[in-house]
Specification:
One of its GO terms (molecular function) is metalloendopeptidase activity. The protein contains ten helices and five strands; from the N terminus they run αββααβββααααααα. Helix 5 packs across helix 7. It has 254 residues and is mainly alpha-helical. 37% of the residues are buried. It has one domain. Helices cover 65% and strands 7% of the residues. A hairpin with a 6-residue loop joins strand 1 and strand 2.
Length: 254
């Protein structure tokens, strides 16, 4: 390839990289509910739309909704008690709580905009206060806008990788850096959600120490060798207990 062509490629690549950084800076905004500055490239309405659109597919992946309406109503009652007793009620999000039929997978998760899920396999092992801890944690993900932040970060690294690939053969290296950054952010998200979950439990009249018991249940579910689905997307429960204890001490005086 001629030298002029290489120069053009490098210039185009640099322009794409510069655009990625400029866009990232322009997308910075402070979360009014957590005070944390985040890279966000969508509105709350868009988050809600993504969550509502994805919810049926997520339920289907876990065998659909649990058929007992009384248990579903119980999950709803605990979830909405947490929302109505906390800053969650001030947010624009539409909170729905889904009990999934999956009786094998120990898991709970939230989609952007307020769609929260818990599998029957996890639900069946929890007291009401422990359920509040799990749902409070998932509400924390919504308020923390963690999915929206991760989507924006993914978009940034994809654009950066494109620029690096155009300019030189660096795409795989940059892509690897991007994946590691998202993994690190995800672990921080979990710890932030744990702290918010503790706060929501206290505000709703639940004993926040039951959140520690949830971590012990998750650890026991893993057994000596098996890693449950919950742990594949969350830090090790043992590593979270000390942070939860600190959050309990921080908020118990409120």
């Amino acid at each position: 390839m001629r030298r002029g062509s290489w120069k053009i490629r490098i210039l185009i690549g640099l322009a794409i990289v510069a655009f990625a950084f400029i866009q990232r800076c322009n997308n910075k905004e402070e979360n009014p509910y957590t005070g944390r500055v985040q890279n966000i490239n969508m509105t709350a309405d868009q988050e809600i739309a993504i969550g509502l659109q994805s919810a049926p597919e997520m339920a289907q992946q876990h065998g659909g909704l649990y058929p007992d309406e009384r248990m579903q109503a119980f999950v709803d009652a605990v979830g909405h008690k947490l929302v109505n007793s906390s800053i969650a009620r001030e947010t624009p999000y539409k909170y729905d709580f889904h009990l999934l039929a999956d009786d094998r997978t120990i898991n709970a998760f939230a989609l952007p905009g307020g769609q929260c899920f818990i599998t029957y396999a996890l639900f069946s092992q929890l007291t009401e206060a422990q359920l509040a801890g799990v749902l409070g944690h998932e509400i924390g993900h919504v308020i923390g806008r963690h999915s929206a932040e991760r989507i924006a970060e993914s978009s940034f690294w994809q654009t950066l990788t494109m620029g690096a690939t155009v300019g030189a053969d660096m795409g795989s290296m940059v892509g690897s850096i991007g994946q590691n950054t998202l993994l690190k952010n995800g672990r921080g998200d979990e710890l932030e959600s744990d702290e918010l979950g503790v706060l929501f439990m206290i505000q709703s009249g639940y004993d926040p120490n039951e959140m520690i018991r949830v971590m012990e249940i998750l650890k026991a579910a893993a057994g000596p060798n098996r890693v449950p689905e919950f742990q594949s997307t969350h830090p090790d429960p043992e590593n979270r207990i000390e942070k939860i204890k600190a959050a309990i001490e921080k908020y118990s005086g409120r």
